[in-house]
Known about the structure:
It is a single chain. This protein has ten helices and twelve strands. The radius of gyration is 20 Å and the shape is globular. A five-stranded mixed beta sheet has the order 3-2-1-4-7, sandwiched between helices. The termini are close together. It folds into two domains: 9-123 and 306-322, Nucleotidyltransferase, domain 5 (2-Layer Sandwich); 134-302, ATPase, nucleotide binding domain (Nucleotidyltransferase, domain 5, 2-Layer Sandwich). Helix 1 packs across helix 2, helix 3 crosses helix 10 and helix 7 crosses helix 8 (274-288). The chain has helices at residues 43-63, 100-108, 117-128, 189-192, 194-205, 223-231, 235-259, 274-288, 291-296, 308-322; strands spanning 9-15, 19-25, 31-38, 68-75, 78-79, 86-88, 112-116, 137-142, 146-152, 155-156, 263-267, 298-301. The longest helix is centred in the last third of the chain and has 25 residues, at 235-259.
Amino acid sequence: MKPTDSTNLVCAVDLGGTNLRAATVDAGGTIHDRARLRTPPEADDVVAAITSTVNQCQAAAVKRGKEIQAISIVVPGSVHAETGLIVNAPNLPAIVNFPLGTTLSNRLNRPVLLENDANAAALGEFWQGAGRGSQTILCLTLGTGVGGGIILDGKLWRGLDGTAGEIGHMSVEPFGSVKCNCGNFGCLEVFASATAIVRMTREALSDHPGSSLQSIAADQLTAQAVSQAANDGDPIALEVFRRVGTYLGVAAANLVDILNPEAIVIGGGVSAAFDLFAPQMRAEIIERAFPVPAKRCRVLKAKCGDDAGLLGAARLAFDKNKQ
């Protein structure tokens, strides 16, 4: 699966719950012009904001003698591939069932693609990041929640309804456990996200008055602070990240047995603490999964950072243009 050699550009847009980022990307995966705005709450204003950032990128591209051929948008929710409608977007409810792609395509007079953010991040890492050179990888994005994306034999796997890859909602501790925002109990997300790290730390601190984290007010505690404390040797923080690694390993072992991937790539903000949880994650995979696929599967830290979704979005458009 190789993108077109066209020298023209795709404008990739990452529509986040807080910020909207756009960039032009060429067929070699190089990012050029960038634009950024706050994400407005209403659908019509979202259309106007995306239009504005695309036009900014287009103006910059024209100065370099280039032209934007297509727009590809990453959204924080589930997208139905056939209709292009967003069927679920907890942080942007105004765009659910709103014809965002069609509206933008008519306004900008260019093709517009929509894709889930975790799927796009997986494709970005596959194309230009830690998964480069592989054909089958799984990507986990550890942030406020846990997103997932699956690349099978070089192709993004969306599933029948476009909801494949919801690895964060695998049940890893279903009985008598923590309730997830999705309504299920014991999802991976409630043990491996930034939100989970803060919750587990708060729960542990009541029994450990000597922890360095006691000096941080409860409402000021962050996953980053827990990570720093773990790096400084705080035993509570170290235990929290050991738990994160354990639950990630339980989920990963199941995925290894089912899909036999070459690599599992870990991205998102929590990946900054990769060295704190990855050893335990690897140990669980080795202990729980079949020996041959477990040893073959690498656990890798993502390389593309916040640009993974933009790169994946662009790759989708280049591939679409080849069809």
